[in-house]
Design a protein that fits this description.
144 residues, mainly alpha, 72% helix, globular
Length: 144
Amino acid sequence: MDTILPNFIFNFLSLIMSSFAQSSESQGSTPTHCHTYLTDEKKLILMRLCVENQADFQDRRKGQFWVMISDLLHQEAGIFLKDPAGTVKGFVASHRKQLKVQSCELGTVQEDTNFTQAVDKWIEVEEDWEHAKEIAQQPKIQSI
């Protein structure tokens, strides 16, 4: 009776450990958190695709737009980006931060590259969309 319980626990733990090892091995080299590194060229391609397809950003649901951008990026650059919206949001936030710092520093000239121009254009697209959304949400004034 004394050895039954310890053997049961040992067998149970062995089973758990072996299934854990198998699940880890079955994942192979596929990481659970896949991070795609974007070169400057691929960042520019992503931003260019966003700007070129801005009409779809205005007309489509945002989820559909970003799926389309992800597909276009895969076709054109051969990379799969899981969260293009988050990536672009990061570019915009970083660029705005740089602009803020540069506006505080006298004599600092903004680096004007194709990428920064594309990010600036995308910021305009987002601001126009937000403005249109605000106008659409305002109660309509009825003429008397």
